[in-house]
Amino acid sequence: MAPHKLYAGAKLRELRGRIGCTQKAFAEKLGVSLPYLNQMENNNRPVSTTVVLALAQEFGFDVTELQSGDEARLVGDMREALADPIFGGPTPPLADLRLAASNAPALARAFLELHTAYRQTHERLASLDEALGREDSQLSPSPWEEVRDFFHYCDNYIDAVDHAAERFASKADGDIDGAARRALAESGVRVVNYDDGAIRHYDPQTHVLSLSTKSTHATQRFQLLLQVALIKQDKLLEATLDLARFQSPQARSIAKVGLANYFAGAAMMPYRVFLAAAQETRHDLERMADRFGASLEQVAHRLSTLQRPGAKGIPFFFVRVDPAGTITKRHSATTLQFARFGGACPLWNVHSAFETPGRWLRQLAQTPDGVRYFCLARDVSKPGGAWGIPTRRYAIGLGCEVKHASALVYADHMMVEHAAAFVPIGISCRICERNACPHRSVPPLASQLRVDPNERGMLPYQLE
């Protein structure tokens, strides 16, 4: 089999800009000619082995970043956006989308932002919502989607925040709760418990942090650390937000809470210790939850963030789904794409987790691009804690490419070598290429339909 050629022009340009090098100086440090570097940066030539070694030796660059998931994510997002009926004519070939994602990623993201703005405006008009007649209506991405995409394209790993949380945990001497309370006390914050109201409430006037006794101990610990991040790590969070350049104050506020959440999870489960525990237990989530005093959802989410350069864990995807099938959380260090618009594939095992509470569901799955995954799913319903308070029902999904399955205890005795054992799943019905799927809810937007009133198969139409 011929070796896979590595084209990483955008990454080379990004690194050169980061260190402030001219093309000529950069070429000299890499030991290549200026024309050769120019061709690599424009993806006219693959990155050679000599250049890869020079990147590591001269700049300490983690060469695994050359194969980051940004290109695959952009291609998947563009394919889904281009399936919108607003785009007339034939869909651009996959090769063109890959060229755009690799050679002009900023342009690809701008296209996605434009399509998102159009879609949101169209939905507002269609539902006769408040967009009509409002002076402050504007074409801008949803703050939630803007923040979601920020974490999505960072591989859900924020290096500065992760290291800060690890340093905080290293000084806790095994008592992370005590360290959090001491840190808050140093800032004049008093922690109290109460029976009613929100999970966490902080009063900036009285400097009182109230935690609900109806929450689990893991949730209370997490909320303590989140408040530590907001108070003790404010400068770091603000500096990170400055670099992200969010388009609205609302997005910035949402992202700040997201970064504080990130700090809390990373402090509860510090990177190096957590990675070692994951490898030792073969990613047994229940053993790890017990060891770190965390919930299963917190452990699964943390596993999806282990992408530190030079010390990466298995690239996982992590999702949380509500009973309606809506993805309420999604993070991925893999090439697996999640539906940006609409529901996820009904064949995915995460939708069945509500039917088997307290049990792990295992699945071998294959996406239309031929990539095979090992998938885990389980319900993580959260009782209200008292009569009359509704239970919040969720299911979580965690998975990785099947080549990593041997490192997971859950994959033991699975028939990973048998093609027939893999369930064909897609991103969403609207762009799925599998014409014969009996679970298809809507026809793919890029296909022509043929309806024969004299014949009925699995679907009430045929795809051409």
TrEMBL record:
One of its GO terms (cellular component) is cytosol. SUPFAM superfamilies: lambda repressor-like DNA-binding domains. It holds the Pfam family HTH_3. It comes from the Bacteria. InterPro entries: Cro/C1-type_HTH, HTH_RamB, IrrE_HExxH, Lambda_DNA-bd_dom_sf, ScfR_C, TransReg_Diox_bact_type. One of its GO terms (molecular function) is DNA binding. Keywords: DNA-binding, Transcription, Transcription regulation. Residues 12-66 form the HTH cro/C1-type domain. Belongs to the short-chain fatty acyl-CoA assimilation regulator (ScfR) family. This is Putative transcriptional regulator. It comes from Octadecabacter arcticus 238.
